[in-house]
Amino acid sequence: MPIFTFTGTDAAGEAVKGERVADNKDVLKAALRKERITPGAIKEKGKEFALPTFGKGGGKVATKDVAIFFRQFSVMIDAGLPLVQCLEILGANQENPFFMKTLNGVRTTVEGGSTLANAMRGYPKVFDDLTTNMIEAGETGGILDVILQRLATYVEKAVKLKSAVKSAMIYPVSVITMAAGVVGCLLKFVVPIFANLFKGLGVDLPLPTRVVMGLSDFVGAYWWAAFVGGFGLVFGVKQIRANKRGRYLFDKMLLNLPVLGMVLRKIAVARFTRTLGTLITSGVPIIEGLTITARTSGNAVLEEALMKVRKAIEEGRTIVDPLRESGVFPNMVVQMIGVGEATGAMDNMLSKIADFYEDEVDAATKDMLTLLEPLLIGFLGISVGGIVISLYMPLFAMIGKLAG
After folding, report:
1. Which domain holds residue 7?
2. For 17, which of 7, 310, 323, 373 could close a Cys bridge (C-beta 3.0–4.6 Å)?
3. Is residue 170 part of a domain?
4. What is the pLDDT of residues 174-187, one digit of tens each?
5. Is residue 376 very low, low, confident or very high in pLDDT (cuts 50, 70, 90)?
6. For 316, what's the count of Cα atoms within 13 Å in the CB-facing half-sphere?
7. For residues 15 and 6, what is the distance between their CA atoms, to the nearest angstrom?
């Protein structure tokens, strides 16, 4: 059996390292997690300096494929098929080679005696903390098929929510891109023709025409600046979000935007309530559920607020007060969660809030699109029409003089 060197952190956050004998890396990762050690780098001894391979080993799994996998998995488990056989069948029927390799690796680890949850923890790019903790709760409670159904429902709703936002943004992005392309082409190719004509005629140009011609000269000389600026903007945003404080300030700015901020807040509330409700329903303790929900929230402001709520609950406080103090969640949400906590039906209340806010997101994105549509059309008309009118103004003046 091969010998592996590993690094990681223990439950107290201390760095650990050592050597272990194991069948493969996945088996070693599962064994380390059982000892409450979070694995870091794992390398086979004697091959520590092997060059990385590219292509076949990498890849991504679409969220939709994961949802279908959970749905099919739950049906097979409910029908009484053995766990290893389910994984073998599902792995063999995957079109995505990366997902197929992942499921085969999970099956091999389970065959080696590991639990399904620990086997999945070896593939964090496909199965996140939310998934593995729910699977662990399902295995412990003997309701794995029910948990898989809940996971499928959760992922499907997450895909629907994400698709609604993407669909709403396609139109404005398309119009802005088209407007920028049309204006750029006019300034680069059409305006210079009129500029040469006006120079030949020696006419006095009105201010709007001079402005447009100046913009045309700038675009002609520095057209590459648009690509550099776009690249710089994307790179700058990534650098800001790579920093913890920068990510917090950037996400806070987004939440405070006039129209988009309201939509983002509703998305954040819908995701938070759906995730936490699913975890609590599946038997995950609320403290651990809040930690997982914070990490998977996708928003630094919400993550910080939820971690403060978690700390307050650990100190013996109810969930309502820290939620209200955070200032992130609407008062109605806080009150409904308080009612759910008092009646012992927080999971049902969170699911109802999630349903409500998912519908609110649909309505808000449609309202935003309705508001943006005339503004974008007006922007396109003013941009293109302004250039065209400014080019014809000198011609109109010349025609007026000739007619007089």
Report:
1. 3-44
2. 7
3. yes
4. 878 888 888 888 88
5. confident
6. 0
7. 11
